[in-house]
Design brief:
By secondary structure, this protein is an alpha/beta fold. The protein is built from 17 helices and 11 strands. Strands 4-7-10-1-11 form a 5-stranded parallel beta sheet. Strands 2-3 form a two-stranded antiparallel sheet. Helix 11 crosses helix 12.
Length: about 400
């Protein structure tokens, strides 16, 4: 992508979709005349997503996962200092609106529909009876998983606060708090196995149950998992890697001008975060609106049978066994089409998302294993036919 871009204030007015905005945001300069007071920020001051220089594929993958949770999350693989964590945290001002429980225990109308009044706390049961809402629209949240998190922190445990209701309840853990949110696990390859297993099972099922003695509770965990790792610090178990939908190989910036621009933006951010945020605030607001619009459009985006057939044929040619490849590829293509304001997937969408959806899915071990088993099967059938001829 060329660096000869117009400034932020000049380009945002002509943007027609999130896809075009990301194309333009790869390396452009920002409008430094944008008033800082318009940013409306008080405490959270993450680095602007659109101020990240280059790294188009990483930004696109994060945007697609935000639009469509069914892509199965994102894994960022790369060396230290390439902006992986910064990129994830910069999603803060782009996250769409979701239905959020107003209760400390996370009670929702869905709990009542599936488990009756006993499935919610007394306060929510009363509100439901009085026809008061149990949820409200709030921005999706980015929840970070601490590297030193304990299993109880992740899944939850006994909550002494419930004694005010004269009943023992289990408190929600990080997984339940991440319901309908983004859960970010930095250095995911260094997490304890029991933590990773709990996260993968809960995210795959969309809910999980914890038991403490006679007490048990089931919590929803419909989350989008984002992980990052430095392969120098250790590999990722194959069953964990398979659960991540989009896989991004994050390289350092190669263009010297891009590296200088990245340095200048970081320098500005460190000296005055509001200055850099103000420069990109108009584009950030536009991107946020486009992501919300794409999410709203997504349910109506279809994959024509002929397009799906091409995608599946490509996956088979690559020798990929996991059916998650089709899910990720087609769901990412739907999100890509929605980001461009279209209601049908085209071959160009498949081509755009295929590398990030299909890389790191073939196993050299399994290829060799099946090859050896095939030779064994051939020998077995030869001997069987010689000893017991087919009648």
């Amino acid at each position: 992508m060329s660096n000869e871009m117009q400034d932020s204030g000049a380009t945002t007015s002509g943007i027609r979709s999130l896809r075009e905005l990301l194309d333009l945001a790869v390396g452009r300069e920002a409008n430094s005349d944008h008033p800082q007071e318009d940013s409306g920020l008080a405490e959270a001051l993450p680095f602007p997503f659109l101020a990240l220089v280059g790294q188009y594929e990483m930004k696109l993958a994060l945007a697609l996962a935000t639009i469509n949770p069914d892509v199965g999350g994102v894994l960022l693989v790369g060396p230290r200092g390439t902006g992986k964590t910064t990129a994830v945290r910069s999603l803060f001002n782009l996250l769409p609106l979701v239905e959020r429980s107003t209760c400390f225990y996370g009670c929702t109308p869905e709990d009542i529909s599936t488990g009756g009044m006993d499935a919610v706390c007394p306060d929510c049961a009363r509100k439901f009876g009085e026809n008061q809402p149990l949820t409200r629209l709030e921005a999706c949240k980015l929840i970070e998983l601490p590297l030193n998190a304990r299993l109880e922190d992740v899944i939850g445990g006994l909550d002494e606060r419930s004694m005010i209701h004269e009943r023992m309840r289990l408190k929600r853990g990080i997984l339940a708090q991440a319901d309908r949110n983004l859960l970010y696990a930095d250095e995911v390859n260094l997490l304890a196995n029991e933590i990773v297993d709990a996260i993968l099972d809960a995210s795959a099922q969309g809910s999980y149950t914890i038991r403490r003695g006679p007490h048990a509770a089931t919590y929803r965990s419909r989350l989008t998992l984002i992980g990052s790792m430095n392969p120098e610090e250790g590999s990722l178990r194959p069953q964990i890697l398979d659960r991540f939908g989009l896989r991004i190989l994050v390289h350092g910036l190669e263009n010297p001008q891009d590296r200088l621009l990245a340095y200048q933006r970081v320098k500005t951010y460190r000296s005055d975060p509001r200055e850099l945020i103000g420069q990109f605030w108009a584009a950030t607001q536009l991107a946020c609106n486009e992501i919300q619009a794409a999410r709203n459009l997504l349910p109506g985006v279809a994959v024509p049978p002929q397009i799906a057939a091409v995608a599946i044929r490509m996956i088979q040619r690559l020798g990929i066994d996991s059916l998650r490849a089709e899910i990720t590829l087609l769901e990412a293509a739907r999100a890509f089409a929605a980001s461009d304001g279209r209601n049908a997937v085209e071959l160009s969408d498949i081509r755009a998302v295929a590398p990030m959806a299909l890389r790191l899915r073939r196993s050299a071990f399994m290829l060799q294993y099946f090859h050896e088993r095939s030779l064994e099967e051939q020998e077995l059938m030869t001997v069987l036919t010689e000893i017991i001829p087919i009648i």
